[in-house]
Amino acid sequence: MAARRTTKKSNVSADELLDHYRDMLLIRRFEEKAGQLYGMGLIGGFCHLYIGQEAVVVGLEAAADEGDKRVTSYRDHGHMLACGMDPKGVMAELTGREGGYSKGKGGSMHMFSKEKHFYGGHGIVGAQVPIGAGLAFSDKYKGDDRVTFTYFGDGAANQGQVAETYNMAQLWELPVIFVIENNQYAMGTSVKRATKSPDFWERGAAYGIKGESVDGMDVLAVKEAGEKAVAHCRAGKGPYILEVMTYRYRGHSMSDPAKYRTREEVQKMREERDPIENIRSLLLTGKHATEEQLKEIDKEIKDVVNASADFARESPEPGLDELWTDIYADEIPQEVN
Ligand SMILES: Cc1ncc(C[n+]2csc(CCOP(=O)(O)OP(=O)(O)O)c2C)c(N)n1
Ligand SMILES: [Mg+2]
Questions:
Q1: Which ligand is nearest to the CA of 182?
Q2: What is the 127 CA–ligand 1 centroid distance (Å)?
Q3: By CB distance 3.0 to 4.6 Å, which of 194, 195, 204, 308 could disulfide with 87?
Q4: How many angstroms separate the CA atoms of 95 and 175, rounded?
Q5: Class of domain 46-249+260-275
Q6: Domain residue ranges of the chain, discontinuous segments joined by +
Q7: CA dist., res. 250 & res. 254, Å (int)
Q8: pLDDT in tens, 45-76
Q9: How far does the centroid of ligand 1 lie from the alpha carbon of residue 252, in Å?
């Protein structure tokens, strides 16, 4: 077998860089396509795109092992793709079709996969944080050697239920990684306007929870921090906080007038910090890949994304009988004594 080439910067193999490149590009192109379908009226309701934040979830998934769990907010398409859920099922759900992960009845914010240990998709800001601790509690209770990645935003980090969850998680030494995706805005409110203590990870100190801040535009840095957090949790040392500094390029959701920041600010981030461009240039300057190879990968990804959109368009809408399935009880009692 040929020796694995490594980058000059670190001991990362070319194969690994290519994997990260592919995984981030899949999310980027998928989200761009979702934006197009939304514009065409094929996706209704809320739709929050993840463009710009790809390195967060790709880096952390690279640090995860089989059976580890994840739960996140409504900005969830990237998390689903990164943990291996089928782009066709995700796109069909976005368009409200039968072939979607929730049979077209949930939409963008409501998808689950038991197989991939993806527990949603939650529209209520911060609601997934105690759920993540609960998932970790179940692993600890059952003696499973698993870790739960609990993702939430800078806005959510200011909520009371997050503080309560930190306390319980540390008290019970739960194997949960709290991932704060600090994209600097909560809808139209910047971090500066929302909190006096903007270093969110430091808040763990009040409970004795270890943590750190990491550059979320650098997939390798995210992966490294993720591995450290995973090792901490798996060793039974309790929770860990990772504040991942990132940026979203698109509006909060598809209906965002974006008056709270300048075009120049977004442009500067795209030009100087883009996570995909960073890996692309590492691959090219380190001579780990040629322009042609990268073009070929781009084409493969486009094909996957186009196939997901075709599948979504061809899948029928769910039948009316679906109104009566997947509700809390299969049988509704007729009499209550
Ligand atoms: C409990 C609750 N309050 C308010 C809202 C409305 N809301 C939806 S997203 C959001 C901002 C959250 O920002 P952040 O946690 O930073 O996540 P991001 O959207 O940046 O990923 C708000 C206030 C909500 N969905 N739930
Ligand atoms: Mg935010």
A1: 2
A2: 10
A3: 308
A4: 35
A5: alpha beta
A6: 46-249+260-275
A7: 8
A8: 999 999 999 999 999 999 999 999 999 999 99
A9: 9
